[in-house]
Amino acid sequence: MILSILHRMTGVALSAGLVVLTAWVLALASGADVYRPVYELLASIPGRLVLAAFSFAFFFHLCNGIRHLFWDVGKGFEMRQVTISAWSVVVASPALTIGFWIALQGYGA
Amino acid sequence: MSQRAAERGSGHWWAQRLTAVALIFLGMWFLFSVLMLDDLRFDAVSAWLASPYSSIPMTLTFATIVYHSKLGVQVVIEDYVHGPSIQALSLRMNVLAHIVLAVAGIYALAKIGFGF
Question: What is the topology classification, in CATH, of domain B3-114?
Answer without folding.
Answer: 3 helical TM bundles of succinate and fumarate reductases (1.20.1300)
